[in-house]
Design a protein that fits this description.
Elements: H1 3-11, H2 16-36, H3 40-57, H4 66-85, H5 92-102, H6 108-111, H7 115-127, H8 131-141, H9 147-154, H10 158-178
Helix pairs in contact: 1-2, 2-3, 2-4, 3-4, 8-10, 9-10
């Protein structure tokens, strides 16, 4: 079933919408949550909560890209769960990639930038990068893949992946500064 049909089921409040959404994107959602969280039960809870949130939010929300909309909710739920699980301690599995991004992305509170505006700027920046660099960036900071996994996927060694990501973050920081976000 295509995304527009699934969204229409949500608008009609047909519970089949959740089944169709889970069938189409369930594996991807578990993959994203599983890369962030170490416990399968936590990942399942995040996916289920995300599906419930989609049920609650459509309508009034009307996402242009259902896959991205759902994945963003899953990722945010998983990060929230990670923060809850590791309160007072650091979990190096996922926080390392978040720390890497913190070097080049402004804190929305400090810069008074909306998440939508920041997302739009990062998307615009990524469209200026070659396909491989863009895919590596997304695998690391969207899907939460390890350097080893990315190296395996792209036939590279880990040091090359790390260097590529460093250079991309440096370019992203310069791009954001050019757009008026000079935060350090």
């Amino acid at each position: 079933m295509d995304d527009a049909s699934i969204i229409e089921l949500f608008r009609k409040r047909d519970e089949k919408a959740i089944t169709e959404l889970r069938q189409k994107y369930g594996r991807l959602c578990f993959y994203i949550a599983g890369n962030i969280l170490s416990q399968r039960e936590d990942a399942e809870e995040c996916v289920n909560t995300a599906l419930f949130d989609v049920w609650q939010n459509i309508p009034p929300d009307s996402p242009d890209d259902l896959r991205t909309y759902l994945c963003r909710i899953v990722k945010n739920k998983a990060i929230d769960r990670l923060k809850y699980n590791s309160a007072g301690k650091r979990d190096p599995k996922f926080t390392v990639s978040l720390d890497e991004l913190a070097e080049c992305v402004p804190d929305r509170a400090e810069e008074n930038i909306s998440s939508e505006r920041l997302s739009e700027l990062i998307s615009r920046f990524l469209r200026t990068q070659d396909e491989r660099r863009r895919k590596i960036f997304v695998r690391r900071y969207w899907y939460g893949d390890s350097l080893g996994r990315i190296a395996e996927l792209f036939g590279m060694n880990e040091k090359t992946v790390a260097t590529d990501l460093y250079r991309t973050r440096k370019k992203l920081k310069a791009f954001l500064q050019k757009e008026g976000y000079d935060y350090g």
